């Protein structure tokens, strides 16, 4: 999936995560701000990267502000931000669910 513009998904509410994807000319970077980073930072980054890989997104700058989101929320917010950034509107949620599980 090719990203055309920056896009954000999620909120700053408790148990959510705000994911911002910005197209980049270099390798993927993930910047994470989380109150539980010491315990779950590696897992959060891995979940974001796994979702990006499933969507075939290679060069992107990711900014994530986590407020205790579960894995399913991290995946969902990453997918929505990717679709917004790509400009795609033809969602096939059954296919997306299969890709990221």
UniProtKB/TrEMBL annotation:
Q: Which residues carry this modification: O-(phosphoribosyl dephospho-coenzyme A)serine?
A: 14
Where does this polypeptide localize? Cytoplasm
Q: Which UniProt keywords are listed?
A: Cytoplasm, Phosphoprotein
| Pfam families in the cross-refs | ACP (PF06857)
**GO cellular-component term (any):** cytoplasm
State its role: Covalent carrier of the coenzyme of citrate lyase.
Which NCBIfam families does the protein's record reference? citD, PRK13253.1
**What do we know about how this protein assembles, alone or with others?**
Oligomer with a subunit composition of (alpha,beta,gamma)6.
Descriptive protein name: Citrate lyase acyl carrier protein
Species source reads Lacticaseibacillus saniviri JCM 17471 = DSM 24301
- Coding gene? citD
